[in-house]
Structure formats: C-alpha cells, structure tokens
Amino acid sequence: MKLPQVIIIGRPNVGKSTLWNRLVGKKLALVDDQPGVTRDRRFGEAHLLGLDFTIVDTAGWEDEDENTLPGRMRQQTEAALVGADVALFVIDARAGLTPLDEEIARHLRQCDVPIVLVANKAEGKTGDHGIYEAFSLGLGDPVPLSAEHGQGMADLFEALLPHLNERQLEMDAEAAIAAELDDEEEYDPKAILKLAIVGRPNAGKSTLINRFLQEDRLLTGPEAGITRDSIAIDWNWHDSASGEDRPVRLIDTAGMRKKALVVDKLEKLAVADARHAIDFAEVVVLLLDATRGLEHQDLKIASMVLEEGRALMIAINKWDVAEDASGLFNGIRKALDDGLSQVKGLPLLAVSARTGKGLDDLIRAAFELRDAWSRRVPTAALNRWFDDALAKNPPPAPGGRRIKLRYITQAKTRPPGFVLFGTRLDELPASYQRYLVNGLRRELGFDAVPVRLMLRSPKNPFAKK
Questions:
Q1: 25 annotated ligand-binding residue
Q2: Is 383 marked within a binding site?
Q3: Which residues pair with 338 in a beta bridge?
Q4: Is 327 annotated as a binding residue?
Q5: For labeling, which of 2, 176, 196, 302 is most exposed (least CB within 10 Å)?
Q6: Is 11 marked within a binding site?
Q7: What pTM did the predictor assign?
Q8: In the predicted model, is pLDDT for residue 209 greater than 70?
Q9: Residue 326 assigned as binding residue
Q10: Is 270 annotated as a binding residue?
C-alpha cells in the first residue's frame, strides 16, 4: 500500500532540507546557510518512531513573478501540495515571523491539506519569542524542534499521528517495527571489527597500535598532540583460542583535552576528526594513563562515546610502571561506576603498550563487547523477561491511576534499542525506566553496552484536545 505523503513547506533558509535529512536518516539533501539551495522536489522514505511515510522537500517559497526562477520553484511547491496527506509548515523560531511567513500561512489556510506548524531552530531559549508569535498564524499549536540536533522529534510524531491514514494508525506496532528491521543488516560476527582508540593526549594511543602491528607504523614521542588526523589501519589479530585470524580496523585518534584548553585551530580540527571517527567505530577503547589515573576529562570522553551509542571499554595503559596497582585498579573501577551512572560495569583492563601485557585480552574483550552490542533478543525471551520484570516490580500508580505497560519490542541493534508500549507513559518515573534498562542489561546479555528505551503511548486522534 502506498505510504502517506508529507510535504515540507516554508520560506528559504528555515531548515527544510535539514528536517528532510533528519527524517530520512541520511544527509542526502544539500544544506547551506545561503537561501535557495533546494530547487526541485526531493522525495525520501521517512521513519519517525514507528511511523513510515514519504517525505517531500521543496524549494523555499518566495514572492516572485511566476516567470522567474523563484516563481517557477514556488509553482513546484504548490503542485506538491495537491498530492500531500499532511504539510509541515516550517518557520525559523530564532528569526520570528516574517511577512512572507504570514503570506504562506494565508495560502495554506485555504488548502484542504492538514497543516502541522513547525517552529525549527528552537534549541535553547533563543526561539521562545518566535514560538509565541507562531500562535498568531491560526494554524494550531506550533511544534518546537531542532532539526539539526534532533530535538522535538517525539512532539512531531504526536502532531503527525492523527493526520496519517487509517492503515498507519491501526497498524500493529510490532509489524511496523519488523518491517523497519528488514533494512537492518544482519550481524556477521566474523566481519572486520572497527576499533577506535581514544583518550587524553600522551596516553599512549599510537604506541598501543604500533605494538599491535609489531612495527613503528605511527609517529610517537613524549610530546603531546603528535597525532592529528584519525588514522585507520587494517590488521589481522591471531586468536590463539580458536587458531583463527580475525580482521580488525584500528583507528588512532587525536588526544582530547579539556575544551577550554583547545585554542589552536589545528587541534580543534583534530578533536573534531576524532569525534567523527567515534561515529564510525563499533567498539571504542578509552585509554587511561596509569601514572595519572582517572581524570574528569576521561569521564567526559566516556560519556560522549556512550551518548553516541558506541560500545565502550576502558584500558589502563603503562601498567608496567603503575604504583599501588591494586588500589589504582579498584579506585578507577569505583570512579567509573559512580561517574557513569548510565552504564555500570564497563569492561576495565590493565595493559602495557610497551611490554604487550594484556593486549590479546583487550582485543578478545572487544569482539565479545561487539557481540553484545549487536545482540538481538528473540521475541519469546523478551516477553518472558518483560512479564517477570512487571511481576517482580509493577509500575507505580501516580494519583491512584495505574500506568499500564502493554508490551516491549526490540526496535534495533548497534546499539540495542527497545520500544515500550503502554498508557500514561509520560508519568512513568525515570527510576522505573532505569529498573527496566538495568534488567535488560543484566538478564538478556547486554552487559555494559548502551541500551536505548523509547516510550510510546497510543493517542486517540478523535479525542478532544
């Protein structure tokens, strides 16, 4: 069956193509600060929290003669409205309403297409004034969001849901997610392991990779900040347990200092490149210096890796010169558990890039961590766990009204993501959500990998607001 069609409309440079990219999940549409980049309609398949639809990007609406290029671009946009099920009218919340926004609104009020008013660039408080102004357009409550940062997508989901066709509204949620998963690549445990090494400057990242390779492949030295570009090197690790050679892509990155200390332009670019390398890694090793212990900057790097959804492990380098090794290890273990509340029990290993101590254990643990990060739980096992979790600790009843949890399903892997369906989930305490996430990790084999839990409540589109 044909997917419902959602069209994005607005004046130039309000972030229409950025929103299109966000909904499609790929940066396919060109985006730039100058207006008029998009000229033709662009179609894409959008996936928003279980809703599937065709999303249409359009040229910026301009008040120009029909015979001019901007005028012909506006005609293309008007034509796209004819076949649309919903129109997203995007304004720039930071800039506030303009006369052109008001003209577009007048035109849209005369159309039969349902309109969802979107106040883009609403991150922080800079867009508050524009959001309040948007109420005057007479197109309903604006949906504040930031297409660039992905904020407000759940609100957009709720605004779109009543307008999309009956099939979409009544489709069984499990079937919708299963269809989405058809596009997910099947996990191959023998595929090349993408392993990034990150940490503060001079922790020994390049020295560690040279030790793996058994050659001076990367420049090293006592000076901090030698590495600038992220370097990827393919290598085969010999697994002595199985006797097999397993492919690994080692990614060396620039040292990450406190943001306040990074003033040199080249260092800023190097740190940005390191962050980019993390996005493409599967497992990230945060390398600590045993002579310096765990510092606040290490926790910030670890949090960043987990927020990106990567599998994280910690390795304490220079173990051969560590003082009070046992006390150091236990202290770091406790500090990690206290400082990274979102994940308990991250793999922690002691290594020495100089002597080679613990390096085989590190690679073996990285492969095991990737397996957990890529794990998919069979539906029957997930349902059994969910029923047991509810029986042991039923959800609370705030105000005497029970929160009903209907079922849970795994929406994705790498990192593992789950969708919890029920009623009144906006009142489900964060502590109960942590209870569920910790149970998923502890009892279903996810160990210390980041786990995402999304909450979905059905909304009656015919209910009075």
A1: no
A2: no
A3: none
A4: no
A5: 2
A6: yes
A7: 0.60
A8: yes
A9: no
A10: no
- Scanning the structure block, which residue is given the tokens 């006369």? 99
What digits encode the pLDDT tens for the residues 220-275?
Answer: 555 444 444 567 899 999 998 889 999 999 998 877 766 655 455 544 655 566 68
Domains of the chain are 5-171 (3.40.50.300), 193-373 (3.40.50.300), 379-456 (3.30.300.20)
Which positions ≥6 away from 238 have C-beta within 8 Å?
244, 245, 246
CA end-to-end distance (rounded Å), the chain: 30
Q: What is the mean pLDDT of residues 430-443?
A: 93
Residue type, 448: A
Annotated ligand binding at 205? The verdict is: yes
Identify the H or E element spanning 313. strand 311-317
Whether residue 236 is annotated as binding a ligand: the answer is no
Please, which pLDDT band fits residue 192 given cuts at 50, 70 and 90?
very high
Instruction: Tell me: is residue 13 an annotated ligand-binding position.
Output: yes
* The predicted structure's pLDDT at residue 437: 94
204 among the known binding-site residues? yes
Q: How far apart are CA 220 and CA 195, in angstroms?
A: 19
Q: Flag whether 289 is marked binding.
A: no
The residues, ordered by sequence, that sit 6+ positions from 40 with a Cβ below 8 Å of its Cβ are 59, 76
Q: How far is CA 292 from the centre of its chain?
A: 32
Report whether 237 belongs to an annotated binding site: no
**Count of Cβ atoms closer than 10 Å to residue 356 Cβ:** 14
